[in-house]
Structures are given as structure tokens and as C-alpha cells.
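User: Batch of two.

Assistant: Item 1 of 2:
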Amino acid sequence: MEPNLLELSPWRASVLALVPLLYAGSAAAATALGQRPDAGWRVARWSAALALGASLLSLGGLLAGGAALMRGPALVILGDAGALHFGLRSDALGGLMLVLVSFIGWVITGYSQPYLGGARGQPRYIRGLMLTLAAVSLMVVTNSLAVLALAWIATSLALHGLLTFFDDRPQALIAAHKKFLASRVADLCLLGGVALVGLQLGTLDIDRAIAAARALPAVPGTLQAAALLLAASALLKCAQLPVHGWLIQVMEAPTPVSALLHAGVVNLGGFLLIRVGDLVADVPVAQALLVVVGSVTAVVAALVMMTRISIKVSLAWSTCAQMGFMLMQCGLGLHELALLHLVAHSLYKAHAFLAAGGAVEQNRLRQMTPSAPPLGAATWGLAALVGSAVVAAAALAWGLKPAAEPALWAMGGILALALVPLLTGPLLRAGALGALLGLAGAWGVALAYFGLHAVFGGWLGASGASTASPVLVGWVLACFGLLFVVQGAVRVWPRGVLARWLYPTLFAGLYLDELFTRLTFRLWPARVPAMPGTLARPAAGRPDMQTQP
């Protein structure tokens, strides 16, 4: 089946290709300039600024196409090698992601130079940063599953050099070592899934593969296995339980690298699943894997966050939870909400990490402010009912029907529970007037949520109907209902039996990372730098060298 596609104009193709080329050229310049880091930084800043301009120009050209935005990708073929066609694609998903990647790259490049002022190895850092951005941008604009897979692998390898930038810190090396092993397993899953897609459908072009899969009367076993492998790869690279520990422990890397990882690179699993969503949407086993692992990770990470006092570690656990929620949405077939979640999380987390110092100061000010008395259980329950009514009214205002879209209404139920702090916070500060303001704010958030769902769904061409089974929808509601009950009970009775019983286990992260760490060190021990007067030796059997999550 031949898809009905538009041909990408030469100027738009040139602009798309320019973005990864600018980053790659900057990496080459950093290598050539050697021990002249100031010159390397100038080239990097200009390259990042020009890449951002090119990505905005590309998105502007896409939006100017009007109805063409809804009809699918515009393509250009750059060359071929047998059955492989190397081409670029321009569509809403790629255009939005390219702007997001370029903007975050521009911000982090500008932040990195003063942050690393005087540090050794700056050319190596510039090269690693630019290569990472080049690989990510290539992954976003390519129309080939083979190139996408290779670009994702290149992203991970380039990022590894950034995570080990401080090569004299044992904790940084151990965390990067654990990530390296988990990522290589994910790479094998990814390459296996791509190979099975090509074997079954006879093409690795993303548009042709999706069109061929849609034309099949039923999903063959080969494609089901491919979908399962692609889902497993996304789960591994998005640091889902129980391989999440490295994401929590990479805080030893430079702060801009943490921002790049948490705001950009770790989100790529969601991008992959959105890009090839039609290859996974009709495979129940892959959907169940994403929903179950993603929801469990989101719930556990959210509970563990309640035990943390470190700002950056709390942010890391937040990323783990948010990735689980995004992958759960992909498993439910709500790709437009997953994209909305990806964009919002990336912008928030980039700001949160780069402004972590200000967050520490704000936290100190809150500690010096007299705390408000905790709300009672009845107030929490009433706020949940009010939030549910507000969300239901907003959904009906957008014409959403519960029977036709149960998965979307389940997300609305989770949103209602998330609105409880917004409804109760002003009540503590300003009484009845504050409650009215909180209600107005909740109504605005609910309207914006479903409105953006409609906008992103139109951009992606989503049908609006989820293919998730009622069992998965019920599982999601049960998980987040339990999370709300436990969080509410701990906040209402912070020194109660439940809080005292849960705290030690949650503080230890259910001991999952310890088990994974022992397993990885048995398979491939990490080598850490020798302390003064000692010999370097593998970190296996050295739990004291690990950063506590």
C-alpha cells in the first residue's frame, strides 16, 4: 500500500538537514581547536543558536502548509542502499520535537560555558554535548527505522562521555557504568525489533512500514514480537523499575548534563513509541507491558519522592515517575497526551535543574515559614470529589464521551486527583476566597488539558479512540487511586502507623536498585579510580562506593 505523501521542498529539506549538520560541525571544530576552549565555546554557541533558528524556520514552514499538516509527513529521499532508503521527514511530531531539542540545546550550551569555566577537559565536553545533540536531532528528522535506531545508540554513547566527564568521581563512573549496561540491552531490543519489522513488512521506511502494517488484516506474530521488543527498549532507556537506579545516581555529572539527560535524552523512549505508535497500538502484550511497568514505576517513584530532602535527587525521582506516566499513556494509545506530557516535562525539568540553586533557597525560606496545619481526611475527600466534578465538566465541554473514550476519561480521573493540592492549598492560605480562586484555577487547568489534547491530537492525526482494554484502564485507575489514598493518609497523619511503616522501605527505593547493582557488577564489574595509596580495583562488592538513591 503506497501512502499518500507530500514531497518535501528543497529549502525545507535543507533546513532540516542543517540542524544535525551544525551540531556535528561544532563537534568537529571543538576537536580541531584542541586546547582553545574559548574558541570552541564560541563555535558551539553560534551553532546552537543557528540550529534553533533553523528548527523554528522548519516548523514555521510546516505550519504555513495549513491542511498539509494534517495529511501526514512530507518526505525527501537523500539516497538508498539496496532496500534501505535514507530520507528526511517533516511532520508535526518531528517539527515540534526538533524545536524542543534545539531550544534545550541552546539553553544548556549557554549555561555550560560559565559553569565549566576553568575546568579541564572542556573540548571533550563540547564535543560530547554537540555529538549528543546531533544524534538526537537526526533521530527526530529521519524517516528510516534503521537510522533512527543507530542515532539513538549514538546518543547514548555520546552521553556516556558526558556522564563520566568528572572521571575522578567513583559515584559518577558507577552510575554511568550501570546506565551503559542497561542501554546496551535496550539497544539489542531496539535492533531486534527493527529487524523484525523489516523482515515482516519488507521496508524500514517509517511511513511505508506503518502503511503496510495498517493494511494487514491481523497482526502477525513477527510484528507482535517486534512491538514487544520496541516497548522493552523504551522501558529500559527511560529508566523504569527495576533499572532506574542510574538515573537517580547520575547527579555526580555536571548540572547541565543532568538537565540535558532529564529534560531531553531520557524522553526519547516516548518519542519512539509515538513515532511508531501504529506498530504497537494493536499488540495487547506490548500495551500491557507499557501500562503495567509505567504505572508501577510512576506510583513507586512518587511515593519515594516523599522521603527525599535533596532537591536534585527529588527531581531525579520525579523524572523516573514522569517517564513511567508518559509510557503508560503510550500503552493506553493516548499518544497525543504522551506528546503533551513529553513537551511539558522537558521544559519544566530543564528549568528545574538549571535553577536548582534557587530551588534550594526557596526551600529554606519555606522551612522558616510557619507550616499550616494538615487538612483532615474529609477535606481531602471533598477536594477529590470537587476536582472530579470540575474535570468531568471540562471534558463534557469539549464534547468527550465516557463510553467512547474510557482511557481518556481515566486520565481525567488522575487529573482530578492531581488537582486536590490546587484546591486545598488556597483554602489554607485565604479561606473561602482562596477556595474560589483554587476552583477557578482547577477549572482553567482542566479546560487547558483537554484543549491541548484536542490540538495535539489534530496535529498527530489521532482518531481519539484508544485501543486499550478495559482491564488496563481499570488497572491504571486502581494504581493512582491507591497512590492518592496513601499520599493523603501520610499527609493527614504524618506520624501515623502507615507513615512509619512505609518510610524505611520507600527511603531505600524498595531495595530494587541494590539488587540490580549486584547483578550488573557480577556480569561486568566497573573500575573506579584508586584512592590515594590504594590500587584501582573493580567496584563489585563495594556497596560503599555507590551513591545512595
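Item 2 of 2:
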Amino acid sequence: MTFGPGGVGADALYHNRVMASPPSAPTDSSRPADHSWGSFSDSPPWVLNDRTPTWRRAADGLRRKQARDLPSLYRAPKLPPLRRALTVVRVLGSAVVLWAIKERGRPESKTGISRRIRLAAEKLGPTYIKLAQIISAGDGVFPAELVSECKKCRDQVPAVSYQEVVAVLEGELNKPIHKVFRSFEPVPLAAASIAQVHRAVLLDGTAVVVKVQRPGIDELVRKDLRVLAWLAPFLVGRIPVSALANPPALVELFAETIVEELDFHLEGDNMLDVAEIMVKLKQTGFVIPRPHPELVNTRMMVMEELKGFKFDDVAGMTDAGVNTHDVIRTGMIGFLEGAFVHGVFHGDLHGGNLLVLPDGRTGLLDFGITGRLTDTEKQAFMKMMMTATMNDVTGQVEALRDLGALPADTDVREVIDVIGLDGPPVDPTKMSPDEMIGELQRIIKALLGYGARMPKPLMLYVKNLIFIDGAIATLAPDLDLFGEVTYIATHFFTKHGATFANELGVDQKDWRMDLDGIKAGFGVDPTEMNSLSHNELQERRALINKRLADESPLKKLRG
């Protein structure tokens, strides 16, 4: 919708396909001034001369307040908001009752309850759809049946009306929309559970994208969290989809994740933090869109528009001369360095939040969920990486304990002995279905007995690794995983070895990469395989899944 002369062409898309010749890096003299401190685009609509715009200065205080308020959202209240609670109980209760009547105790039990939970989430609206979306990226964290169903929620959030969007904007701006925007597209580019994104043009003719929060979502989320916190204890042991994320722990994890998204001051701060970190790391392969120096509010954010290839557009990238292997390597190193060295990383990597620019750099979008580690957690991440490359099992379990995945008083040696973590490597493709299921049951039971849980930083880290695994399958399926792990580990300890040694209080000379241990981590016999492509890994997984899907042992597991 245009408010004055100009307007925006309908053929310009946020994730459009752009054809270009191979890039040439701009000279230092032609770079925007804010390139000296932030990993931004080369042709900006504005330059961020101030690293701390006025709207950014409140971020730290807002985070502290959220941390203080969080326990009241995930602790079970005596009474929840009654009207909302009745709606949730009715919808979820109907789903569970129908499952109990039709599928419980049958081979399709887990599939049935997962499908009914997903349908219930869609009926209950944005908060529950967001919860399903978080679960949908949790392959290996949540049961496969539940993850598969929740993936269907990713693009099923209806947009709010243009009139409601205008009301939010004018409430945040304290002025009519036409006093800020020359034009504003009524139809959103994308609509998610918390917000939706529109293209617009500022009065000076600058094309931008505008992220607008759904009206009333803050109040609705807080009500829903209190309802979930009240309901979660009643669900313990009653539905077969809890895994390590038992319902109360899942509510706590969800609260920590979603509350951060309810104030765009924090998202803008996340964007600038990650942009600064990439420059400190000399990671030139990422581009973060510039938030507007003035137009960032609690429920509205104006930002730079990036254009590039969708992350799965392999043909488009290849035609433009983009090396997709380099895209993957840059993504892995940048994500890991941000987490291990600076303790800040994009916490919600998926295809919709990434695009590849014609010059091969990766644009990062949507910083509503960002991993932020305490000093203790950052050191635990460092230790986790260092000990993983050395095949130091004790160090790895200690790192998980320090991250909060195990209680602080856990006897690490006992955990290793009970689970058998320091035994010889086991190739799951050589196990029978009964053996695999029995081993999974034994490990899960042991971990639950030790009080294992999935803390937010570890969940975001694992979720991102799972996405990167899928991206390799799309962009670099022939990638030699052993060779790539060796390259990345060597890169890390060449570039950051002194930092790791100083932080962890160890001698840098003690680090020795154990490639045989890494091979064992992939479940292969080190003496039998010198390389492993992602395609070969997928074939191994398919064989394992086929054996796990055998009807007879599944009946024993689900019965």
C-alpha cells in the first residue's frame, strides 16, 4: 500500500533468486565505515556510525529483568489463568483421550499421539505452534515421530490483518504510519508465530523490511506459559513422547526461549553483537542485516533488506559461481567459533533464516533466538570441543555436567562406567534390532536416573548441528566428514588454541587430535574406514532406521 509517490515493485522478493557474476571484494576505501566493527553488507541503506543506538542501551537491563521474571512463568502455579486453561485442557484432553481409545498400546501409538498433539497445537494458536516449531528442529532430542509431525507446523501460521499491523506500528511509533513510511505492503513476506515481516519504503525512498509483532502475543504467551507450567506435572509418565525433555523441563526450556522473542530491542542487540563478533573472529563470510539506527521498538523493527539465494537453491548458487562446499565450511566454523570463543551464536538456524548472497557470503536473518553463554557455560563448550577431538570421554561428560545437562554433583566416573562410554566402539549397523532397542532403552533409563536434562544453550547448539547436518546433505553430499572434522579441529586449535588453554587452565601442547576416536563417534570401525562421505553416512542411518522400524521389536518398545 503506497502512501505517497514511489512504492515497491511486487517482483522484488526478500528471498529472491539473484543472478550475478563471481564477486570481487570491495577495496578498503570503498567499504562502509561500519565494516570496521560489524559484518554488514557492502551497499548499505544507512551506516551505523554508533555501535550503541539509543534503542540498544536498554538491552542488558531487559535481559536481567527477563531472567528475574522467568521462574514465575515456568513454575507450576496453584491456579492458571482459568479461561485459557479450560481451552487448553479441552483441546489437549480431547487429543489424549482419542489417542488412548484408538492408538494406545498399538504399534502406531507414538505416531498417533504425536499427530494429535500437533493438531491440538494448531488449534490452540501461536504459542503452541511456536512450541511445535522448536520441537520440529529437535531431531535426536525429541522422539522422531513427534519431530516429524511438528515439522508440519512450520509454515501454517495465518497472518494477522493489515489493519492490526497498522495498529501495532502506530502504537509503537506514536504517530500515523504515513509519517514514517512512503509505502507499506499489506501482504506479509512471511508470517510466523510471534511476528510477521512486511516490505516497505521509508519517506526518503529507502526500501526496508519491517518485522511487526502479533497484537496481544506478549500477554497470550505469558498466559499460555502459566497454563503449561500448571499442566506439565500431570503429564509426566502419561504420554510416550517425553524422552529426556520431560514436560516440566520442556516448559522451562520453552519459556527461556520464547520470552526472549517478545522484545525486539533484544533482537536488534543480538544482531549487532553477532555482527561485531564476526569481525573480531575475522569471519568475512557472514552478512547481518543492519537494524535501523532509530526505528527499533518493543514490537516493531525496521531493518535492511538482503537479497540472495534460498539456502537450498543449489542450482542457483552453482550458476552464480558459488562454491557450496565453502558455504558449508564457513557456516560450521562461524557457528562454532561464535559459541566456543565468544559465547554468542545464532540460535535458530534453518532454511528460512539463511540466504546465500551472490558473492557466496551467507546472510543471517531472524535473531529472536540467540544463544548466550555464561563464562562457565562457554568454558564447558570449549572443553566439550577440545575433549571430543581428543576422544577424552571423561572430559566430555564433565563438560556436559558443567553445561547443566547433568546435576552438578554427578559422579562422572560412575556415569561413564554404567553407560559404558569408554568401551570399544560399537557399529550400530552390525547390531540386531533387538540389540539396538535394548541399548537405547538402557542408556535412556540410565540418563534419566542421573537427572539428565536438556539446558537451553545445549538444545540450541544441538539443534543447529542437526540443521548443518541437513545442509551438508543438500549443499555438499560428497563431503568427506573425517577430513572436514580434521580441518575444522586443526583450524580451531591453530587459531584459538592459546585462548582455549588459558580459559581451561591446560597446556596447549597437550592437545592431540584422535581421529580414530572421532571415527568411533560416527559408529564406524577406525580400522575399516578411512573416509566417510555424508551420502555414506545417510545410507548407514537409513539402515539403522530400517532395523529400528522392524515391527517385532517396536511392539516390545511401545507395548
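The longest strand covers residues 195-202.
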